[in-house]
Amino acid sequence: MAGKVELGQDPLAESLNDLLTSVSSMVKGQLQLVNGRLIEMICTIVGDVDNALSHRYETCFGTNNLLELLEKMNLRVAEEYKGFGDVASGLRVYVEQLKAKSGSFDEYVQQIDAIDQQVTEFEAVISMLDKYVSLLESKVQSAYHNLPT
Fold it and tell me: How many domains does the chain have?
């Protein structure tokens, strides 16, 4: 059995076995480290995706809340403007009534305009008469002062 070498007695085989065991241990350690980092990365990615989905979910529901609020505001404004529409309609009717009533005043307005024109002409005549009276007064005073005494 000289050709058979026992594993425990061959130093090269033991060194190779130790090297392979060390490399195997090192690879296992690295794999565990990589596996741990990979798990951390996966957890981080899953957390980020969860946060993003939660934010998107909140945004969607926030948008829905904003849309509901906007719809309520639109309804409220519509109610307010409906009231303004009623007021405007009432004002329109009132203006039409005033126009109808003012039509009956047209005759009186024309009469007032005619009277105003006559007053203007009368004032011009009075002004001329005033000038003539002043002129006549000055002539009378002049004649009175020139009388022989």
Answer: 1
pLDDT per residue over 116-140, tens digit each? 999 999 999 999 999 999 999 999 9
- Domain membership of residue 86 as a residue range: 16-106
Give a yes or no: residue 124 inside a domain. Answer: no
Any domain includes 129: no
How many Å apart are CA 9 and CA 1, to the nearest integer? 14
pLDDT per position as a tens digit, 59-79: 666 667 777 878 888 888 877
Is 11 in contact with 5 (CB distance < 8 Å)? no
**Ramachandran assignment for 115, one of left (phi > 0), alpha (psi -120 to 50 degrees), beta (any other):** alpha
- Candidates 52, 23, 55; CA nearest to 44 is 52
Alpha-carbon span 16 to 58, nearest angstrom: 61
Residue 90 inside a domain? The answer is yes
Please tell me the distance from the alpha carbon of residue 125 to that of residue 131, in angstroms, as a whole number: 10
Lowest mean pLDDT across 2-11, 37-46, 138-147:
2-11
pTM: 0.34
**And the tokens for 45?**
């990615």
Give the rounded distance of the alpha carbon of 58 from its chain centre: 24
On whether residue 138 sits in a domain, the answer given is no
